[in-house]
Amino acid sequence: MIADLHSHTTASDGSLTPLELLERARDQGVEMLAITDHDTLDGYFVARQAEFPRPQLIAGVELSCVWAKTAIHIVGLHVDPANETLLRGLERQQQARARRAQLIAEKLERRGFSGAYEGASLAAGGGQIGRPHFAAFLLQQGYVKSNAEAFKKYLGAGKVGDVKSVWPPMAEVIQWILDSGGVPVLAHPLHYKMTATRLRTLIAAFKQQGGLALEVLSGHQAADRTRLLQDLCDQFELHSSGGSDFHRPGQPWCELGTGSTLPDDCRPVWALWKKQTDRGC
Ligand code: AMP
Ligand code: MN
Ligand code: MN
Ligand code: MN
Predict the structure, then answer these.
(1) pTM of the model
(2) For residue range 75-88, what is the model confidence (pLDDT) as tens digits?
(3) What is 3-90+169-278's CATH number, 3.50.30.10, 3.40.50.1980, 3.20.20.140, 3.30.70.3040?
């Protein structure tokens, strides 16, 4: 099964429209695709109208939250996109994101980067504003030479634009996903740059709060990292998920379909939902 259970569209910080994403996934041979935009189902709502025969489309979302003062991403898979609790939660996330965009802009303006809000807003093109849009603004104005530099200097963890006070606790977003009948997945566990002990504490909290799966694959990664994550799944009795975290073409390490070969001995996340296509529901 070529399943890609983590991807983004123009509804958040991806560069392809939902339809372009579906076409590209099909062309890459993806059989099951979850659109998991940051804090919104809008991309999924557009894609499900397309009635593509392949890939099978899974309703998903990547929720921003906080655990022990660290910003964490929880992917919800196979959620019911009509569920009231989830939709109310997403409404709150979007308000938080809008408030955060103002706060980030104020901080950047104080550093002398005037027009930050308008610049990021323009880069978001009507979708919701995220840190990558501030990075695009800084790059476009020549304040930095690359996207990576924008994160390293101004937007990454611990930098001036890293505003996470607006996000709800992890337990809350896990509950929204569970209420909607979806599967809460801890996204890219190795991206948080935690010590092994702290990561285990995070996974224990995630499990205790109702979490059901870990992303053992996130784009292209070394085999020993996959093994490490699969061992954690086994120890904590969690299911395994994986996806490219695709944002845009031209990044071969996170092309659609990359990171789709789960370990043979794992319990794949899709075993948690029935073998059904959720397009149209
Ligand atoms: P936000 O959801 O607005 O907090 O933005 C987070 C997004 O920024 C992630 O999903 C990535 O797409 C992007 N991102 C985070 N860290 C980096 C980084 N160091 N370099 C490039 N992009 C990053
Ligand atoms: Mn992103
Ligand atoms: Mn993420
Ligand atoms: Mn993502």
Answers:
(1) 0.95
(2) 999 999 999 999 99
(3) 3.20.20.140
